[in-house]
Amino acid sequence: MSKGILIYAEVTREDYLHTVVFELANKAVDLSRKLDNSPVMALILSKPNLINEYKEALRNNGFDKVFYIADDRFGEYKTDLFAKAAIQAVKEIDPEILLIGATNQGRDLAPRISTALHTGLTADCTDLDIIDNSKLAATRPTFGGQLMAVILSKKYPQMATVRPKVFKPAQEDLKRDTVFIKLGIDLSDYKPCVEILEFVKNSSSEINDIDSAEIIVAGGRGMQSQEGFSLLKRLADKLGGAVAGSRTAVEMGLISPEYQVGQTGKTVTPKLYIACGISGALQHTVGMSSSKTIIAINKDKNAPIFDICDYGFVGDVFEVIPQLIEGLEAKDLS
Amino acid sequence: MKIILCIKQVPDTSDIKWTENNTIQREGLESIINPYDVYAMESSIALKKKYGDVDITALSMGPRQADRMLRKAISVGVDKAVLLSDKKFAGADTYATGKTIAKAISTKFPDYDLIICGQFAVDGDTAQTGPSIASFLDIPQVTYVKEIIKYSDNSVTVVRELDSGAETVKVNLPALICVLKDTFEPSRPLINGVIKAADADIPVYGAEDIGLEPDEAGLKGSPTYVNKAYRAPQKEVECKFLDNCGDLLQVIEKCGGENE
Question: Over chain A, what HEC string results?
Fold first, then answer.
């Protein structure tokens, strides 16, 4: 008999539940049907004064049970504190499957839990399924995203992390008689070894947030330099869009990692994605292939990016992009 | 101050060719040092330059050929290197890899105070091995480190780059940090470094040398296994090629239009 699917309900630094929690819940409801309707559960670590708010947010979202631990120290995520609490909680809940968002926090926390519980963890899954009646089959891209691997765990709980936006949240309320259970976790012997000295929030003014942008102008190795990226910025500004980069562009230091699209970066789904000087390794395309329209500009007509785009332009980005900017400027004047 | 630098040799995933049977063509596939591990290496060398009294040991788990990568690390300023190589290690997932490396560190270099890893390896892309090593050693970890501000006898202060901003964290030593990127220029081989690298004795340790039981290593010691692997499906779209900028501009305006 299945013991249920547990989702780590991540609270962000800004004190809201991460959207990935609801995406995972929707997927978990789907998986639970293949597991004799085993319960879908959440685990939340929260400050005591906010717990009621989170309970309301989790209610009617597919969760049969919500386990919570309230402690004043949970205001800020710290690996050692959260791992200590979550490991004890997961042992107590003893789920069949544990799903965690592949966010900064989730990717930091998940391997601490899986190692402590001596179980398997599959990172950044792009699909989850149940096979052989009860096994979690976690599919993830590997080898630079070019090979898909279906990974199973011999140990329990079977753990996986999933990036935000890979699954969709439920379109309507998933009505449940959600039961709330407070866990008594002993943190009395917790000795902090990490101290957060400062946090500087990103100014979103410089480059738009790529999560919400409707138009993304992205650059890869072919953009070569900072100058190349300033061209992208000018084009994006003209279009009211945001600038993003491939992993190679990030490795070349042309753009900071928070604007990286792809398997080790973000998954984006804008209305229009313009890939400039990006060859189109699967590492990158898994993060953008769900965009509504994809345009690729690349001088190599055999670049794999042309296999997944709607419109292609074979040409030198340093000639094409300035022409596009000029064209848009001319329209502004007329 | 003693730093353990974890580096990995990976296939150059930007240059993968496929056989007719949709398997990866392994012959001729170049091996490179994982790019994030280059940042880890540069960070450790920068600490050595800044603080002087720093001893860096590079540690890698992989095939015998990784010896070359370790010598290169010595040529740019790493003090010594050790390779974990054993047929028994083959097929290790992040759990078994973390256990193997942690075991090697605790048996061979127990007096370390800082372990530096790259945030990701570009072949597996899991970002799990660093935290797994830290878990097995029961030490704190700091991931997504973009800058090391201060390194002292009992703590290290770093800046983490997160989606929502930059977090400055002070962590007690011993600790493990995973480096995302840094601002240093890549080090060039030093003249005496090249000589040192050529002469260096790089020990190779197997499972027995580090006290790892055969069933703890490699595939046997891994809780996960690959059920199947296949070439990633290509999206079925017909690309419409445009040949002048005017058409391209029209498409951009139509598809990204604000007045939809």
Answer: CCCCEEEECCECCCCCECHHHHHHHHHHHHHHHCCCCCCEEEEEEECHHHHHHHHHHHCCECCCEEEEEECHHHHCCCHHHHHHHHHHHHHHHCCCEEEEECCHHHHHHHHHHHHHCCCCEEEEECEEEEECCCEEEEEEEECCCCEEEEEEECCCCEEEEECCCCCCCCCCCECCCCEEEECCCCCCCCCCCEEEEEEEECCCCCCCCCCCCCEEEEECHHHCCHHHHHHHHHHHHHHCCEEEECHHHHHCCCCCHHHEECCCCECCCCCEEEEECCCCCHHHHCCCCCCCEEEEEECCCCCCHHHHCCEEEECCHHHHHHHHHHHHHHHHHC
